[in-house]
Amino acid sequence: MAGWMASDTLRAKLPVYDGTMWIGPRGGKKVLNDASLLSETPIHKHIVLKQNPEAGLIAAIRKELVEARSEGRPINVGAARHSMGGQAIPRDGTAITFDNGTVQVDKQAQSYRAHAGARWSQVIATLDPVGLSPMVMQSNNDFGVAATFCVNAHGWPVPKGPMGATVKSLRMVLPDGDLVTCSPSQNVELFNLAMGGYGLIGVIVDMEVEAAKNTRLVPQFEVFPAEQFAGAFRAAVQDPAVSMAYGRLNVARKTFFTEALLVTYRETADQTDLPAAAGSGWMAHAASRIYRGQLGNEEMKRFRWWNETAVGPTLGGGETTRNSLINEPVVTLDDRNPSRVDILHEYFVGFDQFDGFLAACREVIPASYQEFLNVTLRYVAQDDQSVLSYAKVPRIAAVMSFSQEMSARAEADMARMTQALIDRIVAIGGAYYLPYRPHARLDQLAQTYENASTFSKMKRELDPQLVLRNNLWDNYLERL
What we know:
The chain is an alpha+beta fold. Helices cover about 30% and strands about 25% of the residues.
């Protein structure tokens, strides 16, 4: 964690790449940061690879691996680097950024082949004209396709699981330089290690991924007491007419987590002449200003809830397309306050444990100093593939957003609150997500991810020189 307090200076003075990647000199060294602005890490060098996913890219990757092995340095690859604990940063090593938007569609097979560095915005732009859509992607379109696989992120199509379950095959360069093809039926062990493996298993070159039909959808909004959400959400997930769904909870302190909003999307009768994919436009920008207005303002939090549950269904309740729903950049909600940073948490609980989740959050979060801005509730199907699976059973995913003051007090308080939440949620059979701040204790990771020690053992066998490393490995997995 050393050096994190200097990150607000970096934010003001360093050049920006992609809105989330920060690099610059400090004390005679290059440093790299991520979306948290709290992961300042010294690196040896940073390079950008733009080659198409053919011989040139493979040769460039192999060259860097050879150099890193000979010098005893680590390597890790990133795209947007929107993780928050250095999960795509190799300490004193070579940081590679993939920057190539190559996407090829196979409309008949309803799939696409994407360069590992392709962003979801580029995937949508390629699929939309032929009537297709990503089957599962993250909730924003800025992130890299391979990066999504490496954290095994999920989205809000139902009844789907993590994005990794939609990958038909991939090619990656192993630490020894071998190029392998992996899939659910070929080199399965490697495939399952790489899915949610945070780039520690191999350097992915390209991927073949399932697509879905782009469709015209209409939303339905329902508001009820929070304790009724899990039952209503389960019914929505099991309804074959529902293709997209998410929920929200109210965040004002006096009524914290007492009300729930469920939004479900169903196909309209008319599926002809779909408009080109767009973002949510002025409504998203207006909502972002209200979202930011919640900071230190309980009245605005109550206003936002009223806006989402009463005004929103009227103004935003019209027809849209699947691609337009997911075609939203994270910058829409960008925090422009140089003294604060948005920090995400995510927890996964079974439907029957949702009341316990509510009770834990009601006790732990309002007792902290943190400004809690939002929670979005999504569904994630059971994942039996990834070695580091966070969904051993079907679960509700709670994506939380905090605005954290960039100070020592706030960081210490966030660590304390995080550990308390993890203890409570793991005790009821839930899990926490690994791409965020490294505040969990080692015993909490080992308890949550029961296969973590197996992952570490298999990674050492595959990569005895530990050439593929990042801060997740250094802080946790190396110690198992």
